[in-house]
Amino acid sequence: MAHxxxxxxxxxxxxxxxLGPRSARRATLYLISRRESLLAPLSAAMAEAALNVKIxxxxxxxxxxxxxxxxxxxTRDPSILCVVEDVSDLWALERSExxxxxxxxxxxxxxxxxxxxxxELNIEPPIGRVLGGGIDEVILALxxxxxxQTTSHYLSERLSEGGVNIxxxxxxxxxxxxxxxxxxxxxxAALKSRRSLG
Amino acid sequence: MAHxxxxxxxxxxxxxxxLGPRSARRATLYLISRRESLLAPLSAAMAEAALNVKIxxxxxxxxxxxxxxxxxxxTRDPSILCVVEDVSDLWALERSExxxxxxxxxxxxxxxxxxxxxxELNIEPPIGRVLGGGIDEVILALxxxxxxQTTSHYLSERLSEGGVNIxxxxxxxxxxxxxxxxxxxxxxAALKSRRSLG
Lengths: 198, 198
Description:
Two copies of one chain form a homodimer. In chain A, 43% of the residues lie in helices and 13% in strands. Chain A has eight helices and six strands. In chain A, helix 5 (87-96) links the parallel strand 3 and strand 4 (101-105). At the A-B interface, helix 1, helix 2, helix 3, strand 2 and helix 5 of A face helix 1, helix 2, helix 3, strand 2 and helix 5 of B.
């Protein structure tokens, strides 16, 4: 049996999403054999993150400063607000470098099945932010799932009195995607929203 | 873009076997959202392991003491030596609780293709240990791969002068395995080594 220090590390690593007991053992051996180059730096990086990372009180993003660096960035357009489910969605949009407005992170979606109502989400602050004025467009960039669409619908109802332009992301063929592999829903959405080449 | 502290953690996690950039991002968000219950303990467990885990100078096992707790265990039979490729193999055998002798970890296998010769492995110490006397049986518990078998062959040649009993693990049908899913090599080995039920 491995010694308790090693066992303890394996047990904790096995709690990470995507790692089971076997891959946690493999990762532990890999870490121990790279003590200076990986194990010590990773431990330090985790301690740093545990100490420094905060949730932005304005938009819900994660950063080492509050308000986060996106909320503080005066070069970004404050008149467009993009509402996302999770921080990972915000990161994905930032990687695309296609959006230069502000964000709001809901922290999940409404879900009748899982008993998630508006009170469980960070959903009143963005509504207040939009109805408070100064925002021209709200992009509801929620996932194209049932719960994501329910949440979009709820938000667009609540925001309808604000007189702002409410949009959602386009559905269609992914860039580089092959028609043969697409589901019917995506194909019919892409067909309905076809664009003139002229 | 995520802040550099978070990016740094993602980059280090992505180096673990079994995690890519996407799952490292997911693991990072998971860790940050479980700061007290997982992120801080994991960081501490890694720091502990980096500080305390040693390679046993006698057998090559990993432990917080040197010689390791297996080498120090006087209830284990010192006359049987089990030779394995890696610490993960030693752990697997210990989980089976079927072996109560001593181990030696080679740290790999001979490999003509990868240019690994006897000098690159921890292979002279076990030979000296066996030829030094006091050992009755050497179990070559190497993987059933070409390189594992080459290494087994090399070791059995070198140990032949010592007058010890040299054995290898049995090949056969895995317990719970279905014949239909087994490769031909395993099936023919299982057939060749069939045992009388009498």
